[in-house]
Design brief:
Layout: E1 2-5, H1 11-21, E2 26-31, E3 36-37, E4 54-56, E5 62-64, H2 66-76, H3 89-113, H4 119-139, H5 153-162, H6 176-186, H7 189-204
Parallel strand pairs: 1-2
Antiparallel strand pairs: 1-4, 2-3, 4-5
Helix pairs in contact: 1-2, 1-5, 1-7, 3-4, 3-5, 4-6, 5-6
Length: 205
């Protein structure tokens, strides 16, 4: 299978999950702004949305949307323990987190990435993000990961989005539980390998 991704994007979460599960993926780096692949071809031909991540399946079909791709990979390797089995409440707790991260945290950062966002609204967006980070910090006061003692696909996604604080000069110091959580995840071999792949891709661009 092939994963289309770009540095500093939510596609990092999918790469982390694949490495956790030892699912081999070919990485295809995308210039998301230009909508081009490294060979100059049109990325819209792969994903009409023009976004990453996209996963090319063995039969040639494409699967999009990070949270969905992560669920797909986790279900390929159920013994990996990144997503509980269907009908269990544990699974729906992870899905609950995936939806929160996608709708509240991920999208909360979006205005900060847009050059066209007015300065007044940029301040509001920043305050909204900080409010969500505070809430996350409170949830992590007595647990190692989002749903308890076990790392799941939701943690891969959460870590990836929280790391965007570095791109916008938001210090995690006010949220010690969140900062410790990020540190725990950053130490995982899968995360180190995925981030190293990003650095190499960025250097080669």
């Amino acid at each position: 299978m092939k994963l289309y991704l770009t540095p500093h994007a939510c596609s990092l979460a999918v790469d982390i999950v694949a490495r956790e599960l030892e699912v081999p993926l070919d990485l295809e780096w995308v210039d998301v702004r230009a909508k081009r692949l490294r060979d100059g071809s049109d990325y819209f031909a792969v994903n009409p949305k023009g976004q990453v991540p996209t996963l090319k399946l063995p039969d040639g079909q494409y699967l999009t949307e990070g949270p969905v791709i992560m669920q797909y990979l986790a279900d390929l390797r159920p013994k990996g323990g990144l997503l509980a089995s269907v009908t269990t409440l544990e699974r729906y707790r992870v899905l609950e987190w995936l939806n929160f991260i996608s709708s509240e945290l991920h999208k909360g950062f979006t205005p900060l990435f847009r050059a066209t966002t007015p300065a007044e609204y940029r301040l509001i967006a920043r305050q909204n993000v900080q409010g969500r980070l505070q809430w996350l910090n409170d949830q992590l006061a007595e647990r190692d990961f989002l749903t308890g003692p076990t790392f799941t696909v939701a943690d891969a996604y959460c870590y990836t989005i929280v790391m965007w604080t570095k791109l916008h000069d938001i210090e995690l110091t006010p949220w010690p539980h969140l900062k410790a959580y990020v540190g725990r995840i950053a130490a995982r071999p899968s995360v180190k390998a995925a981030e190293q792949a990003e650095r190499e891709a960025k250097a080669a661009a």
